Amino acid sequence: MTQDVKIRQMTIDDIINVYKLGKQAFIDEKKADKSYVYSYWSLMAVAHITQENIELAYVAETNGRLIGFALGHPQYEHISDVGYLEWLAVSKEFRRKGIATQLVNHLLAAYKEKGVPKVVTDVKGTNEESSTLFQEKLGFKLKESVNFLELTFKSAKKRTRKK
């Protein structure tokens, strides 16, 4: 375990650093090793969580630097008694030091405090480290596998942003 790592509830001041770390973990690293990028990570996603569910958002920091986060929702889809651990990331140089476990344990404690009886998460099939973390270290059970299917239109119009 890394010394001097503090786990605390996320604040609005953390939004940009959480977004940057998530972009690095969920998008940039995947592109660098030519992995398929399956992610809906965005600044809007982070802002929404901090606006709606700040009590289910935790960050890890050391020496004033944000090095990890765990973000959740109070319910999964429309199932009100099932919490959803949606995002978890730790800076590459701090992985495999127990930080993700600490983050998830803080988030699970928050769910228990809220009276949520069950929590679900999803892990990309090729992400063995996360699968091991959730199943072997944290006690999550594999329930159902879902395949993500995609169709790309060759002649789709480019979307324009509203100003």
Structure characteristics:
163 residues; alpha+beta; Aminopeptidase; five-stranded mixed β-sheet; 4 helices; 33% helix
Describe the structure.
This protein has 163 residues and is α+β, with helices and mostly antiparallel strands. The chain has a single domain, classed as Gcn5-related N-acetyltransferase (GNAT) (Aminopeptidase). It contains four helices and five strands. Strands 1-2-3-4-5 form a five-stranded mixed sheet, sandwiched between helices. Helix 3 (99-113) links the parallel strand 4 (82-90) and strand 5 (118-121). The protein is globular, with a radius of gyration of 16 Å. The model has no long low-confidence stretch (mean pLDDT 85).
How would you summarize the topology of this molecule?
Elements: E1 6-9, H1 15-32, H2 43-52, E2 57-62, E3 65-73, E4 82-90, H3 99-113, E5 118-121, H4 128-137
Parallel strand pairs: 4-5
Antiparallel strand pairs: 1-2, 2-3, 3-4
Helix pairs in contact: 1-2
